[in-house]
């Protein structure tokens, strides 16, 4: 089968189209003939060697296609071996494309419980782009963050897949959503997608400017931080507010003052990916509300996976980057 393969770690250019063997059969696993795959920042970290993937390796967590044994149209939940507990994954949990060959290929093999019927209302591109960012954001906002209608949410980094999905889901349940961004254009796009307003994070005082967007400038009930700026995010919270953290794209070390943290009764809540139950909750929310799937920014052919990665890393994408496999 054709696949975009890593034989070494590095920049986008290390992704090369190769012929590789199809996945070997495993009990309880199912082959999927992929139609599309979607990129995530996590794939960039895999390509750079962050997760010590075995080489040669096929990256890719997100995908949608045809289940080989039944012919059913399916989406892939890339959360492998979650386990029985909902509060945290099992010890052998992993993300598809870390150590198991992923979705940048014509075929992928996954555990049967990671397959979900493709909703008829989604295009193939949307179905491929939804699972990782959708289940991650659903878990972050609702399972972990406990976001309720009427609460005020601040989403850091408007424009990325996490931010656009968070705006859509939070607005759909009646939360008030603000965003941060490096550009007025991205803020305007977030507003058109359901956000109320936003601030530029290029201003060092952005947490205080963001607080002014809440009633009486008291601060946000919840801040969704996928970039790792904990100290600034805590400044934007109200007393008793919650910080949900799910990424470290800007900083992987955080230093915070302890006394202000506990006097303010703040919470810092970690989360990553999500369970099959979270994914079921996401699909139910999409079905009963006007929440939209993640927007698709650009589509590349499989043999241009390196160009797709370069585009993702450029920071200009608004929404998801997708690979056409067939």
UniProtKB/TrEMBL annotation:
GO terms for molecular function: oxidoreductase activity. Pfam families: ADH_N (PF08240), ADH_zinc_N (PF00107). SMART domains: PKS_ER (SM00829). Residues 10-323 form the Enoyl reductase (ER) domain. InterPro entries: ADH-like_C, ADH-like_N, ER, GroES-like_sf, NAD(P)-bd_dom_sf, Zinc_ADH-like. SUPFAM superfamilies: GroES-like, NAD(P)-binding Rossmann-fold domains. Signal peptide: none annotated. PANTHER family: DEHYDROGENASE, PUTATIVE (AFU_ORTHOLOGUE AFUA_2G13270)-RELATED, PTHR45033. This is Oxidoreductase. It comes from Subtercola boreus.
């Amino acid at each position: 089968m054709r696949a975009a393969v890593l034989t070494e770690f590095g920049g986008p250019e290390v992704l090369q189209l190769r012929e590789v063997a199809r996945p070997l059969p495993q009990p309880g696993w199912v082959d999927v003939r992929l139609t599309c795959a979607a990129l995530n920042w996590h794939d960039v970290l895999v390509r750079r060697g962050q997760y010590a993937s075995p080489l040669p390796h096929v990256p890719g967590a997100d995908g949608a296609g045809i289940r080989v044994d039944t012919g059913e149209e399916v989406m892939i939940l890339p959360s492998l071996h979650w386990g029985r507990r909902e509060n945290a994954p099992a010890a052998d949990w992993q993300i598809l494309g870390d150590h198991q060959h992923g979705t940048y290929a014509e075929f992928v093999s996954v555990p049967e419980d990671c397959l979900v019927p493709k909703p008829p209302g989604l295009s193939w591109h949307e179905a491929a782009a939804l699972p990782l960012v959708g289940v991650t954001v659903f878990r972050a906002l609702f399972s972990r963050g406990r976001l309720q209608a009427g609460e005020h949410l601040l989403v850091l980094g408007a424009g990325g897949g996490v931010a656009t999905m968070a705006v859509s889901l939070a607005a759909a349940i009646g939360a008030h959503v603000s965003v941060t961004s490096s550009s007025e254009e991205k803020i305007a796009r977030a507003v058109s997608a359901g956000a109320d307003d936003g601030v530029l994070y290029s201003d060092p005082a952005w947490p205080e400017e963001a607080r002014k967007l809440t009633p009486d400038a008291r601060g946000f009930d919840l801040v969704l931080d996928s970039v790792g700026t904990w100290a600034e995010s805590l400044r934007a919270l109200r007393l008793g507010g919650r910080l949900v953290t799910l990424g470290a794209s800007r900083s992987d070390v955080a230093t915070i003052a302890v006394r202000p943290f506990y006097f303010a009764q703040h919470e810092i809540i970690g989360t990553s990916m999500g369970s099959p139950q979270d994914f079921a909750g996401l699909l139910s929310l999409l079905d009963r509300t006007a929440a939209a799937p993640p927007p698709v920014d650009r589509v590349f052919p499989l043999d241009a996976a390196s160009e797709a990665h370069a585009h993702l890393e450029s920071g200009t994408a608004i929404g998801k980057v997708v690979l056409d496999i067939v």
